[in-house]
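Pilot study result, target chain (62 residues):
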Amino acid sequence: MRDPERISKVLAQIERIWRANPDWRFGQLFVNALEGNDVPYYIEDDVLLARLITLEQATRGD
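Predicted structure:
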């Protein structure tokens, strides 16, 4: 069974990014987190979380 805690971690990261970029639509946020031609259906949650963290850092200028 997958760790249920992953849900709150991923959603919290999405919220942080979205609040920092309120003019983005959700689709923009999600596509910006993807790399290349990834099919979202196959991305594991830990990989998505890492990409969201990278996106947050990039949009903050870290």
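One observation from the pilot: The chain has a mean pLDDT of 92. A full batch analysis is planned for the follow-on phase.
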